[in-house]
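Hi! If you just cloned this repository, the fastest way to understand the data is to look at a raw example. We've pasted two of them here, unedited. The first protein comes first, obviously.
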Amino acid sequence: MNHEIYIRRCIELAQNALGQTYPNPMVGSVIVHNGKIIGEGYHRNAGGPHAEINAINSVENPELLPESTIYVSLEPCAHFGRTPPCAHKIIETGFKKVVIGARDSHEKVNGRGIQLLQDAGIEVMSGVLEEECKALNKRFFTFHQKKRPYIVLKWAESADGFIDHDFKPVSIGNSLSKQLVHTMRRQEHAIMVGTQTALNDNPSLTTREIYGRNPVRILTDFDLKVPSTFSIFNDQAETLIINSIKNSSEGNLHWIQTGKNDFLTHLMQALYERQIQSVLVEGGSFTLQQFIDAGLWDEILVIKNPELTLKNGTRAPQLSAEVSEIQQLRANILHFYRRHEA
């Protein structure tokens, strides 16, 4: 039996929930009986049934389940959270074999689900398309292994390397690249800007161009200079205000007090404590450069407009990494950078 075919299908299913499962991972599951898929499911949202449960419930003839193999892209959970442990349900259902893509790095799981299944006499095979399964949940794995969010940096710059014109906002990307950015906002757990960007652009940081959830908004505003009437303080998304003055909450707004020294370390700790698994950093140039200089990033997207010359304004961040991929969206050239660990 070609196990990779079914684990690949698990990955395809899981991708349907990209951006919808935080703080949980994306997981897909299929059930195979005599070489035929008889059930499929994926984890749709945090608090909802997990992939294995949805796959089991989708099977029209439950009598076939004890004679079937269940495939899952990530190790079944073995602890009680908002839902019961999936490993218990697999045992209760009577499966004789489980095929797993990757182990779960969460400290409450990490091998415990596999052990629970094996202790029940179930044959377990793991590590099928392991790297692909880990890549599917790169945010989840980074969060639990490095104790920080997965960091994505993004900016748009003109042909001569400016991100604004005479220090005022200007449209650099086209309609297609703007849709891409809003898709990224939907996919990532949170989005972050600094004080100057908030003051200059008055952004709402929502997914206006496409349908989908709004990310958690993060504003770094040490001296609380951004007026409370600005769009970032509306009620459309949970908002964290990183500052040096106060700790408090009011509705969807949460002020988190931290010092300016070693700021990024304190920020990563605060976001980890709030289970923020990924952050899209949209600027401005000073904020982005801080992350670059600290080597604190996992992916970078630079949108370049070779037809636009601005001559004066805020310089784009300086980056010495090698580009991983180049794409073109009409007149915009997209440069993707991905960090590869040694």
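Ok, and the second one:
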Amino acid sequence: MLLLLADFLTRYDSGFAVFQYLTLRGILGVLTAMAISVLIGPVMIRKLTHYQIGQSVRDDGPQSHLSKAGTPTMGGALILIAIAFSTLLWGDLSNLYVWVVLVVTLVFGAVGWVDDYRKVVEKNSRGLPARWKYFWQSIAGFGAAVVLYLSASGPAETQLIVPFFKEIVVDMGLFFIVFTYFVIVGTSNAVNLTDGLDGLAILPTVMVAGALGIFSYLSGHIRFAEYLQIPYILGSGELIVFCGAMVGAGLGFLWFNTYPAQVFMGDVGALALGAALGAVAVIVRQELVLVIMGGVFVMETVSVILQVGSYKLTGRRIFRMAPLHHHFELKGWPEPRVIVRFWIVTVILVLVGLASLKIR
């Protein structure tokens, strides 16, 4: 939006051309989204508290969580507002990738909002039935996959890149659509499973989004892409603005979500942010790097799968409770210790993912 205004004003003052630089608009995206989150956050928390939109807590969960009952939830709406406004303000609205990731984010957020609303406001413990939740997630995931497949201008945009091995490239063809669906929907639900402790999901999301922003910028720059031997994706550099907005909105939300949390994200935020990470990773062809950098999300998801599978097959549980963060709580780790250690693990994994740019 403001990019168009800057283009117009450049006719009268060449100084406005500075807004053409992706790095500047990426930084402005971070600052704008963070400012929106920090400024609107207290108002939203008061409104959620006033309307008694509070978190319900499972009786069979860790006893330390019982005190969290009634804490305002659905705060993820604040994140989505900040991301959308900042992206529309500083992004190039003629760029297809910007619209794909933004629409995917908002649709998944809408699915999460309906689920949260039914659970918290209508007091329906089931929320949105699983079949309908996955139906709408599938519609959004497949829709994005088809758009990206049909708009691909070269084979590099649909090939599977294996990190650390420059010679291993897999042509996926039509399987790209199925693969993209699983990446977007899978990442969305993985982040949702991780969102169980104060700040546990949001900071890893911020770190992974920041790293994907770097990948986006480099993939969209033909010289950097050639030097680093990564796919050159024309127009993907613009996603640095969206990723920057995710970073800023996430940090602003963390201001209120850090232990002890004043507000929870809810499905409206977790499902949307996970889908956004998956969509960006697909566009810049770094799905396997996303698995590395989002290792905490992967571990949480795998712990649930193993727990359910083991109990159904043998009647025994592998973990004291799943997802994995609850296992460590029941082992006696204080909640802040679990959170910070998972953050530290994410820092290490994000650095490993970034190292794949050069170690090939």
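That's it. A detail worth noticing about the second one: Residues 93 and 333 are 47 Å apart (CA to CA).
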